[in-house]
Design goal:
This protein has a three-stranded antiparallel beta sheet, with no helix packed on it. It has a three-stranded antiparallel beta sheet with strand order 8-2-10. The protein has a single domain, classed as 4-Layer Sandwich (Double-stranded beta-helix), CATH 3.60.130. By secondary structure, the chain is α+β, with helices and mostly antiparallel strands. 18% of the residues lie in helices and 32% in strands. It has four helices and eleven strands. The radius of gyration is 18 Å and the shape is globular.
């Protein structure tokens, strides 16, 4: 999925977004952490995300739960990536839910290393484009007393996977 953000109006000069490159993070995982993550899946549910807390049951039903392999290959270039989503998600495939939380935190700590991070300080007219399947992102908190005005536009494009031939892995494995 390709995401584009464009900022139109801002008064503050200290609004920063962070982007973490999961390809580099996956490539540098320690062998024990890589082994621990094999066979695990991340369970994504909007019910676990604060932005959706005020959603009605009818709204939430539009976003079914999804489960993805944590260690997977990019759908288009087949390169290895980490699929983590959000620290609020649950990990399946380990002995206990607590073990899943520990693994997820270790993977996030690794991914959020400065070596894999791009810091973007927003300015009027900025456009940032990223592939959401290989990038984690979030904004840094800032205080707004009501005098700061931001206007952000977000566009998403879903990618359609190329047709699978008989020599390729199934889509479920991507």
């Amino acid at each position: 999925m390709l995401i584009i953000y464009h900022i139109s109006i801002t008064v503050c000069s200290y609004h920063i977004s962070l982007f973490y490159y999961t390809i580099a993070a996956r490539a540098t995982l320690s062998k024990p952490l890589l082994e621990r993550a094999k066979g695990t899946k991340i369970l994504a549910s909007v019910r676990d995300i604060a932005d959706f807390a005020k959603g009605t049951e009818e709204d939430l039903l539009n976003f079914p739960n999804a489960e993805h392999d944590i260690l997977q290959n990019h759908a288009l270039d087949k390169g290895p990536i980490l699929y983590l989503g959000s620290p609020h998600m649950k990990v399946n495939g380990l002995e206990t839910p607590e073990a899943g939380k520990v693994l997820l935190q270790l993977l996030f700590d690794h991914c959020q290393s400065p070596a894999f991070t791009y810091y973007h300080a927003w300015d009027v007219g900025d456009v940032v484009i990223w592939d959401n399947s290989q990038t984690l992102h979030h904004s840094m908190p800032y205080n707004n007393d009501g005098s700061v005005r931001r206007e952000l536009y977000r566009t998403q494009a879903r990618m359609e996977l190329p047709e699978k031939n008989d020599n390729e892995e199934s889509r479920d494995e991507l």
